[in-house]
Amino acid sequence: MSEAEFTEQDDERRDDPSQAAEPRRRILIVDDDPDFLVVAEAALAAHGFQVERASGGLRGVFLATQDVPDVILCDLRMPGIDGFVVAEALRADPATQHVAIFACTGRRDLEARAALNASAFDGVLVKPVDWDSAARLLREIVGLRRP
């Protein structure tokens, strides 16, 4: 087969919707802990997600509004603006108000749960995160929120 024939076959495959791979779902992780960012990115990428990282709340809001992700995982306690402010800012923006936002926290107390229930978060992932369970949950969420 000539190079031109290979190219034609490749073009035909790209044009055939049945040959197109399902798009990778995008997750933005917002956390000031660089170790958590590295572990979370590796774990979620291994489950087929495309991951972007933000090392703080302000950067997270900026990245989310520049290229809207499918899901946002956001730490609650960060210097500068905390996770509650991040979630409220994203809910106030028409471009990001529909995005699923999950708090990531090590707090397990009832006071923290009550604050989360009254907040702009869709759910919570408790640290240390079970990434296999989290990936299943996130797949379900993006399946419900995206066509």
Automatic annotation (TrEMBL):
InterPro entries: Bact_response_regulator (IPR050595), CheY-like_superfamily (IPR011006), Sig_transdc_resp-reg_receiver (IPR001789). It comes from the Bacteria. PROSITE patterns: RESPONSE_REGULATORY. Residues 11-23 have a biased composition (Basic and acidic residues). Residues 1-10 have a biased composition (Acidic residues). Residues 26-142 form the Response regulatory domain. The modification 4-aspartylphosphate is found at residue 75. Residues 1-23 are annotated as: Disordered. Pfam families: Response_reg (PF00072). One of its GO terms (biological process) is phosphorelay signal transduction system. Keywords: Phosphoprotein. SUPFAM superfamilies: CheY-like. This is Transcriptional regulator.
